[in-house]
Amino acid sequence: MINLELSKNLIDSFNDDGFIILDKFIDLKYLDKLRGKFEPLFRGEFENGIEPDEWNWKFDKDNADATRQICNAWKSDNLIREFVCHELIGKCCSILMNWKGARLVQDNILWKPPGGKTLGFHQDAAYDDWLIPQTMITCWMSLDNTSREMGTLEYIKGSHRWGLQPPKGEFHSPEDYKKELNIFAERNNKKIDVAYVEVPAGGVSFHHGNTWHGSGINTSKDNRRAIVSHCVPSDARFHPTNEGGTAKIYKKYKKQNSDILDDNYFPLMWEKK
């Protein structure tokens, strides 16, 4: 289904740059099956009869050139769950972040059609101040041959060491998608060194939750589709008071008088024995 063996060189590269990019990850025989899930999901055809937590684009309602996103489709579709909750992803995330284990806090189904709009530069972990510790790693799996012209992910090398900044500016479809990045870099005398995620279908990238990243317009004639696992430490807990970022969506799963992340809503993927 997926294949990856983390070498010392890959781990060192992740620690140095804040990300790694690999051409081979998903077994190619699954790509058509995964791509075939996109249209039904965005039409609201949920295999398990359960609506995902976020469904940010709908046919016959939203603009055709909008970048389309669903969050937590693992609840709605069994094949998506098999991938985004895969044990190997959890193990790789744990090794890269030096955690004892990992759990899924959120998945993404991302579909950037031809003309698909920008995504503002940001840090993923900035949206999770409702968690202790406030840290994250993201596994981004490409289902299409991906190029710079397709509005692929852009990483800023070494930016995971810049500290975590509160979210600012527009997230979806900003006119200047690098605005917040440029403001921060100028104020703090940081060098912007961009790396583009250009991989064949089935490729993958892992990035640190503090790594600045965003994406431009899809100027090609092709779809750019990806599935994403956002992972946190297996022993992460709810923050007792913080309610910023995505808390309004996910803090509803907090049980009374408990700070534990329930496996039913935040699946445990892997933990060291």
Structure description:
There is one protein chain. The chain has helices at 8-17, 31-35, 38-42, 78-84, 87-97, 179-187, 247-250, and strands spanning 19-22, 54-55, 68-71, 101-112, 119-122, 131-132, 137-142, 153-156, 194-196, 204-208, 213-215, 224-233, 237-238, 268-271. The protein has 273 residues and is of the alpha+beta class. The protein has one domain (8-255): Jelly Rolls (Sandwich). Strands 1, 2, 3, 4, 7, 10, 12 and 14 form an 8-stranded antiparallel beta sheet that branches. Strands 5-11-8-9 form a 4-stranded antiparallel beta sheet, covered by helices on one side. The chain has a two-stranded antiparallel sheet with strand order 6-13. The longest helix is centred in the middle third of the chain and has 11 residues, at 87-97.
Summarize, please:
This protein has 273 residues and is α+β, with helices and mostly antiparallel strands.
Record the SSE blueprint.
Blueprint: H1 8-17, E1 19-22, H2 31-35, H3 38-42, E2 54-55, E3 68-71, H4 78-84, H5 87-97, E4 101-112, E5 119-122, E6 131-132, E7 137-142, E8 153-156, H6 179-187, E9 194-196, E10 204-208, E11 213-215, E12 224-233, E13 237-238, H7 247-250, E14 268-271
Antiparallel strand pairs: 1-10, 2-3, 3-4, 4-12, 4-14, 5-11, 6-13, 7-10, 7-12, 8-9, 8-11
